Amino acid sequence: MKDGSGEFKTITDAIKSVPDGNTKRVIFYIGAGNYNEKIKIEKTKPFITLYGSPQNMPNITFAGTAKTYGTVDSATLIVESDYFVAANIIISNSAPRPDGKMVGAQAVALRISGDKATFYNCKFYGFQDTVCDDRNKHFFKDCVIHGTMDYIFGSGKSLYLKNELRTLGEDKVTVIVAQARKSETEDNAYIFVHCDVTGTGNETFLGRAWMTHPKVVFAYSTMSNVVKKEGWSNNNNPAADKTVRFGEYKNTGPGADPKGRSPLAHQLTDEEVKPYITLGVIEGSKWLLPPPTPKI
């Protein structure tokens, strides 16, 4: 608690209290307010939950940049452990918006590298590289993700259900997703189902070929006119035209019109989309739990 009435003075202190090799779920309730901390949850500390009040969400914030820490280590919250859960938490990087001149201005809010992680009703604030969905299986539900360029990136295999992707575009070209699959045999993808694509400007690509074999699916999602009619970019690399896997299925809104769409985008059939729109894509039935309701 910010007023000092909690069991720990900082979130970092709370995390330190969890023994290495932990085998039981530990739920930390975080009171409202701003927590200026850079937090890393090591791989040795699984089964941690950070829980805030949905009516008064705590904000974990730090101003780390790639220039100081390197991109993936600039994150305000780094989670390398498995079975992590966050519910009703704001995670933000308060570094300034990149101006295109400063080298290393990227600033990550969250890096999730552990397996079987879940985020319920969280808000992620940043500009470039807001969420590093780094590797392994993750589930994001009812979250809001803000950003400008590549603000969801990495090699995770993740299902995003009922999230808002809010692009701060203004008049600049922006990109939501930079999925980092590097070969046809790599088993990772980002799947967005029943999401809302919102924001400012009208120069936003849903995704680009940052790496050679990105796999991204948008299904049943609502897209505002923030999305460029082409929708997708080969990142000025024509060789990627044959290796990208960009799929769309029954999206709606002015930004979802298949007319004028880049040939990179594949309008999926009912049969083709089936593997992507169930929890089975992340083996969710084996590990996914509902949001916690701790007794406080």
TrEMBL record:
Subcellular location: Secreted, Cell wall
Pfam families listed in its UniProt record: Pectinesterase
SUPFAM superfamilies in UniProt: Pectin lyase-like
Highest taxon in the source lineage: Eukaryota
Coarse class of the protein's main subcellular location: secreted
Enzyme Commission designation: 3.1.1.11
UniProt entry tagged with the keyword Oxidoreductase: no
Enzyme class name: hydrolase
One BP term from GO: cell wall modification
Segments forming domain Pectinesterase catalytic: 2-263
UniProt pathway: Glycan metabolism; pectin degradation; 2-dehydro-3-deoxy-D-gluconate from pectin: step 1/5
Alphabetized Gene3D superfamilies for the sequence: Single-stranded right-handed beta-helix, Pectin lyase-like
Signal peptide range in chain numbering: none
Keywords of the record: Aspartyl esterase, Cell wall, Hydrolase, Secreted, Signal
Keyword Hydrolase: yes
Family of this protein: Belongs to the pectinesterase family.
Name assigned to this protein: pectinesterase
Native organism: Cajanus cajan (Pigeon pea)
